[in-house]
Write a structure and sequence with these properties.
The protein contains 20 helices and nine strands. It is globular and about 90 Å long. α1 crosses α4 and α17 crosses α20. The protein has 454 residues and is of the alpha/beta class. Bound molecules: adenosine-5'-diphosphate (ADP) and magnesium ion. Adenosine-5'-diphosphate (ADP) binds next to α6, α11 and α13.
Length: 454
């Protein structure tokens, strides 16, 4: 069943862009398929995602899942954790328009379309230590296309900004050098175009088209692996352009030498110019990206909010952006300000330990906690066992361990020369209480947040 859901995600990705998948569909799990009744059961993390899917994407699910399962579905059931939402097959829902940068097949009668997406610019690209080399190289290429870094190869994991940079290069060159002919092409499309050129005897036309571009931007070159004939054709195009000193830029998900299933001579061409990588950004850069993305959507968000979102564990900027979109959508739908609580409601309480920007001392933990109770450091260090004081002491130990870099022993000593096993016990107690009591958990979480950002 996992395979079917994966295929579904791929279809949606191709048809409507990966944004929808990362923002909404990835939050869903294919829970069960009742073949007898022809019912698909999906699970959503919360009511909000559930409602959003119902409003916007039901017919998409009906048609694609139906096709993949090879039946006409009678019903789709979305479980949202608490309640059940059943939807009869007749529910007519509107599909969101696909994000439009999948353009029609190219034809030589018209001047070729650049396929460059104007939405991606250098101005919108946040530079951090994770991508500064790639950014600098991309920028340099736009000043003197074809002469500086050629080819330029940008590599990095999925969703880290490669496509963004390729389009930014295209847009910038368009601005700076008016008569340059630019072509952005995904490798997938390149492969398909080549296959259909063979089928319809148009290989010559196909090659002509590519030979006449000044700047060729090829995205996700790893998808050319094991396509021997396409590689052959591409190799020749590459050589022609390269010898004519035309600029070529590639992106790929691994270092060129590590792409599997490609001919050595092509591999060495890919790595023959400048190679720059992009990795996952550090916290500060994530915060800056979130703020920039919110800004482009016309939403101003506070640092503390951007910081909360940035602290969620994600594997890519795309995923982070998905989180932001979900938060913004929820806030505008509910007409509520974007607060930390709202973020927790939409995205769930983060499971992993957030990172701190700066180091926090044991004293700071105690000071910050004093806003909420009247116990002094001397009380915490004492042997008094008043119930409330004991809870506060436990919380202090728990937070100290989570937030500071001190050892259990340091914490035990700081809090009145106790045994480090006491701290272990306290942490256990707090964790248990957090599981039993959501209000307590919320209180501890926001305390933690406050201390980290004091
Ligand atoms: P890739 O091609 O590497 O899979 P994309 O270029 O599609 O990744 O980036 C995914 C999303 O993350 C895009 O919306 C892009 O605008 C955004 N993004 C990635 N890096 C940055 C950055 N440094 N500044 C702003 N947005 C970024
Ligand atoms: Mg990409």
């Amino acid at each position: 069943m996992d395979g079917i859901w994966e295929s579904f995600l791929n279809i949606v990705r191709q048809e409507s862009g990966s944004r929808i998948v990362d923002t909404w569909f990835k939050a869903l799990v294919l829970h069960r398929w009742d073949a007898l009744e022809r019912i698909v059961y999906l699970k959503a993390p919360n009511q909000f995602v559930c409602t959003w899917i119902q409003r916007n994407y039901m017919s998409m699910i009906y048609s694609h899942m139906g096709r993949l399962l090879n039946v006409e579905l009678s019903k789709i059931v979305i479980l949202d954790g608490q309640s059940l939402t059943e939807l009869p097959a007749s529910t007519e829902q509107q599909i969101q328009p696909a994000r439009a940068y999948q353009s029609p097949t190219l034809s030589l009668k018209r001047p070729i379309r650049t396929q460059v997406n104007q939405h991606y610019s250098f101005a919108d690209f946040v530079v951090g230590p994770n991508n500064s080399l790639a950014y600098a190289a991309a920028h340099a290429v736009t000043e003197k296309p074809g002469s500086l870094y050629n080819p330029l190869f940008i590599y990095g994991g999925s969703g880290l900004g490669k496509t963004h940079l390729l389009h930014a290069i295209g847009n910038e060159i368009k601005n700076l050098h008016k008569n340059t002919s630019i072509l952005y092409q995904t490798t997938d499309r390149f492969v398909n175009e080549f296959i259909s050129a063979i089928r319809f005897n148009r290989v010559h036309k196909f090659q002509e088209k590519y030979r006449h571009v000044d700047v060729l931007l090829i995205d996700d070159i790893q998808f050319i692996s094991n396509k021997d004939q396409t590689q052959e054709a591409f190799f020749h195009i590459f050589n022609v352009l390269y010898e004519a000193r035309k600029q070529i830029v590639f992106s790929g998900d691994v270092y060129p030498q590590n792409i599997k299933g490609i001919a050595d001579r092509l591999r060495s061409r890919l790595a023959s110019g400048m190679v720059a990588d992009i990795v996952m950004p550090p916290l500060e850069t994530k915060v800056a990206i979130i703020k920039k993305k919110a800004e482009t959507q016309g939403v101003a968000i506070e640092d503390i909010v951007a910081h909360t979102i940035a602290n969620y564990t994600v594997a890519s900027i795309r995923e982070l952006e998905g989180f932001l979109v979900r938060v913004i959508a929820y806030a505008s739908l509910m007409q509520q300000p974007i607060t930390q609580e709202l973020i927790y409601k939409v995205l769930g309480v983060p499971s992993t330990m957030p990172q701190s920007i700066h180091e926090v001392s044991l004293e700071t933990v105690v000071q910050c906690m004093q806003k909420y109770h009247s116990y002094t450091l001397a009380d915490l260090r004492s042997d008094k066992r008043v119930k409330e004081l004991v809870t506060v002491r436990h919380m202090a130990m728990f937070l100290m361990k989570r937030i500071t870099k001190k050892s259990l022993r340091d914490i035990a000593t700081f809090l009145g020369g106790r045994n480090h096993a006491t701290v272990v016990h306290a942490i256990d107690r707090v964790e248990q209480n957090m599981q039993l009591d959501p209000t307590f958990k919320q209180h501890v979480m926001s305390l933690e947040y406050e201390i980290r950002n004091h």
